[in-house]
Amino acid sequence: MLLSYQFATAQSSDSLIVLEGQVVDAQSSGPLSYVNIGIANKNVGTVSAEDGQFRLILRPGQANDTLSFSFIGYETLRIPVEVMFALRIPVVMHRKAVKLQEIVVKNHRYKARFFGTFTQSAIAQAGFSENILGKECGVMMRTRRPTLLEEVQINFGQCSYDSVYFRLNVYQVMDKNTFEPLLSTPQYYAFSRAELVQTLALDIRSLNIQVQGDFLISVEYYRDLGSGNLYFKSALNKSTYIRATSIGNWKKVHIGISLGVFGQVEQ
Amino acid sequence: MKSNAARQSSAIIIFERLITYESIQSGHHWRFSTVGGIKRINIDKGSDLRHLGELDQKLWTVLSCPVNGLEMDTRTLQLIDLDGAGKIGVPEAAAAPAVPFDIGKFVGVFAAISLALGAIGTALAAGIGGFLGLEWWKMPLAIAGLI
To answer: Rounded to two decimals, what is the model's pTM?
Structure first.
């Protein structure tokens, strides 16, 4: 992956740091869309647009921080903000080598099970105050035995948008603060408002995702949806993990959005 | 019979407000005093020290103090200076109460907090202000620690 920074702007008059640039793929030299860009654990970030362009506004105190560029299938790039200013040259990164999963033939039986939260009740609905790019919410689940994920189910509630765009993410939870992405390719979805009326069923069998232990499935907005409302049908006795930017900190809130997954659990 | 509108009514919950609510729920109840016309937080209970790290840093008027040159036990201040930088910052002052209780350190921490929270402007004045902010029964304890 080649990251080309076009530092058209530096510090504005009010001392905010404005970084603008474009992210492009090294092999195709084409723009790389929807790359997560931000300062780790500080809830500061953005997502590159379809043409790979990004714009990030930092506070003066963040001049000594390090920007992370993260995208499924690519090596994560970390560059200090001050270095980006100083170099002003393209930064070349290599595509992440994909390690093929070991194939194990087992003589096990499998049992279908649903993980996560499911409710079709619209009495309680939850969502972000703003549905802007990088916002992400998901549900933590746990399986003791190896489980192959098959179908994600989401129940949206009120929606004032004509169309909704999101990226589906699956993480293996290593510890409280370490969530390892399990997908090797980004999964983008777009639905019209009419489609959201029913339970969304996303077939993920082809992704061949196997989990064990704690895992988290999330919905991330990779586009600004504009002003409006988008809520999930929710259960009051469950919880949701949310973060304001794709590289920010996860926070747990005590209402569970209707998001879950069917999986085949090894017996 | 209920109307359609009534049947479709929902409770809309915004994630961000839930976080704020959680913060309030788990947050510590701070007590304030007005000293010289300036609002100050009272540090008069052990729980105040324990929750110091949660205090919004906007409320800290002094964000660091030197280890040397103050009218306080230098050794105590050095103990709080975890990174050995020669000065005590807010994170160090806030982290200090988490370690096992140590009378000398307690006094030092208290002095550092007083420095940080003091709005009078000088370290000495802030230290005195902190001392005066103690409950009467804690004053001998503080003096013993200083000696």
So the answer is: 0.58
